[in-house]
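New to this. Please check this protein:
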Amino acid sequence: MEKKYQYIHKILPEKIDNQFVAFLDVMGFSNLVSQNNLEQLDRYFFHVNDILRGLKETNSKIDFLSISDSIIIVSPDGAFGLKQIIQTIKKIQLRLLQKKILLRGALAYGPVFFDNTNNILVGKGYIKAYKLESQAIYPRVIVDPSIVALLGEDRTIFIKTLNKDENLIYKNSGTSLIKDDAIFINYSEILDDGKIHRTVKDVYDMIKNNLYADQSIFEKYIWIKSYYLESLKKVEIESLHYNTKRAIEEWIEKFSRL
């Protein structure tokens, strides 16, 4: 006799609220798996989990889910929620970059319901982020243009608002080799307490070791080269110590030669 199931209570709410949701994907993850590169895979999971655990300890309202090569982050509606999720994404990108692991993804906005206890993630916002991720193309996390209207009238106001205290959104200089085809989260860090940030060398080594390996990945590493080259050129070196000035100039030359 067929069993009949009866709902005890509803799992989904009557109304799904708008939230920010990011869908991040590790580039080259399938190669790590196929090559059985357990050391690199272990690094990836360790650092991602370490950052996400840190969020829990700070009582952050951000929710997250890590599945294989995908990271899903959900943040509450509002300017603070937007800034918090962008800061989190940048932190993850920067930490993984130090381990020569690249991310691609998208940040969207819309109805999202996330229940960690019952492992439920549903909503148009999540679907939008998932679909947008493939349009990022390069190692970057793009921002759904519809989010711009939430903070201001145009992209200039949007970038100015989010970059007020820290450089969270990439701003094209107008002379950049990077095509101005998307709004994306800035994850390059050039200076650290007046000295060259350690990731500059990590990125340079990663590009040098992979740029001439295969045509299928050539464009990806050319993009990173152009991105970091412009980031180096944007640094205002006048107020820096002489040694740091020289180091910036030397790195610009090195990246240019690639």
Remarks:
- The mean pLDDT is 87.
